[in-house]
Amino acid sequence: MHIRTPYTAALSLLLCFAAGAGYPAAAEQRPLEGDYVIHDFHFASGETLPELRMHYTFLGKPKKDAKGRVTNAVLIMHGTGGSGRSLINDRFSGVLFQKGQLLDAEKYFIILPDGIGHGKSSKPSDGLRARFPQYSYQDMVAAQYALVTQGLEVNHLRLVMGTSMGCMHTFMWAEAYPDFMDALMPLACLPEQIAGRNRVWRDLAMDAIRNDPQWMKGEYTTEPVGALRTVAGLLLIAGSAPIQMQISLPSRDAADEFVQKYMQRQIEDLDANDILYQVNASRDYDPSAGLEKIKAPLLHINSGDDFINPPELGIAERDIKRVKAGRFVLLPASDQTHGHGTHTWAAVWQQYLAQLLETSKTAP
Question: What residues have CB less than 8 Å from 81, skipping those under 6 apart?
Answer without folding.
Answer: 1, 2, 3, 118, 235, 275, 278
